[in-house]
Specification:
Elements: H1 3-21, H2 25-30, H3 40-61, H4 66-77, H5 85-100, H6 104-111, H7 119-128, H8 139-143, H9 173-192, H10 197-202, H11 206-219, E1 245-247, E2 257-262, E3 266-271, E4 277-282, H12 283-293, E5 298-299, H13 314-321, H14 328-339, E6 342-347, E7 350-355
Antiparallel strand pairs: 1-2, 2-3, 3-4, 5-7, 6-7
Amino acid sequence: MAAESFIAQHRVALERWWEEIKEQVLQWKLAYEWPREIKYEAAFKKRSELERAIKNDMNVHQFLSKDTFDAVMQWGFGHTSNCSAHDIADATKHAFGHLMEGRVAQAARALVKLPGVGISRANKVLALSDQQEFGIYDSRSAHGLSDCVGSNGQRIIPIPPGRVIRGDFRKDYCDAFEHYTWVLRHLRDLALASTSESIRREFARVTDFEVALFMRSRKGIQLPRPPKDVPSDLRGLAERDEESLFWTLGRGKKAQRFWVTFNNSSVTVLTGKQGKTVKTIEWNKIRDCLLHFKGHWFPLSNSKTASDRDPNGLGHYFYSKLDCSPLFASHFAALWVHQGFVEEHIRRNEILLRVLETVT
């Protein structure tokens, strides 16, 4: 669908939503900070530095260096990527070729092919390349737009999943990034037509709306569904990397952090201190696994030692059916609980799981 058709379809809803929020949107933007405690001016300065680095690489090489790519990852997530310089160069060359031709979704698809790169990471690289025309699409910024709904009562822009915000799962997030870009550009046009000089000045770029929506979500301002609270013993790095950081089902010192990236056809978890251990499972195999266990409680039972594993447990299924370490069962189980696919129950020292009836 072309931008003009998409905006025409949702014009009434978008303009009604703009009228509802236009008196507050500047307040949201002025509260911007990222990472935490990096306030407005310093936060925007860092974004501009990254934009210049990306543009310089593209002007000189027509692709991004690993240093520049990882600088974006470090800024956004607190750690670098596991991608090689060669793979980054190849993917970014194709991605920015699409982007320059206006094929925003295709640009994102070129980047999510990289190991450990989902839509949240991919679009940060793309959006920071030109803040005049693009904004970062993540669970926070999309959540800040979550009460902008079409005539059918559905969100115009789906929310990609994050650790704090559950989001709308199994959507085409690359297409959604393109639609989100069109929406923010339309909002920019509405701002530039405003009678308020401050609105026209402060919202001359697409990124200005993105950061306002991000802070609206973070502050929980006039939003229908507040973010899920995080247990106090699991905060730590989570406050920085809330887009992809999760915790296994144990609590306190038993909980281990891991990262997740979502693509249209698969889910990837990255484990270990730096996320160096990677496992990708396709959505159809996830569905098969969930349906296999549906209808009864079953143990997590993810011991590496075969004699210690319950043959009816999730760990054994991962080992025998998915050809991977049973330890990954703990990561995917935690993710599924967060997504609302599975519920957990602690019986003495054993974790029991049950697939919910809504999974089909």
